[in-house]
């Protein structure tokens, strides 16, 4: 069970988020704070695995609290909950697990809880973050949120469940840099994440793979490597 602290200077926001978290069977104790001082006090007296912090609180902001707890030997996972997109870069520089925009949707919150669960299971390994530009705003996204990458000249378009982002990096460079993270080249125009594969049609006249709902072609040149990768991950009986 994951014990959490919800901190926001508006009580209705605290109660709404606590209600949504309480519906998740993975959540244990839910502690509440309506100020930065209360949040720090709760962190000193309670066993907390994750903190859901509003950024804009008077006196001590969510960013201030995150900086303070980052100095502890075993800091809890931090998720920022805010109506402001402009602090995302600073938030992820503080190793935030996630950045939720208000109003918080239940399915989006469930993904944050999954990330916290993975983080605890992996021994607090901080996820790989990528800096992207979108509409004049700099954002940080998690690499494991990228389901596939599409070549666009000297650029690459990163596709996630929520949006796509254009970065000035050739697909061939990402193929080399992200191989250990489970990304494999399937076509001259596509790189896919094995973690997001739905199903494959390898024996068809036109081989393809469905990744996060998108059907992508597998070229005959890359088909043997895709087959080998799948064979390496196949579960076999012992003995």
Automatic annotation (TrEMBL):
Gene3D superfamilies, alphabetized: 3.40.50.2300, LytTr DNA-binding domain (2.40.50.1020)
Keyword flag DNA-binding: yes
Keyword match Lipid biosynthesis: no
Protein name as annotated: DNA-binding LytR/AlgR family response regulator
Keywords: DNA-binding, Phosphoprotein
Residues with PTM 4-aspartylphosphate: 54
Domain HTH LytTR-type: 130-232
Pfam families membership: LytTR, Response_reg
Domain Response regulatory: residue ranges: 3-117
GO molecular function terms attached to this record: DNA binding; phosphorelay response regulator activity
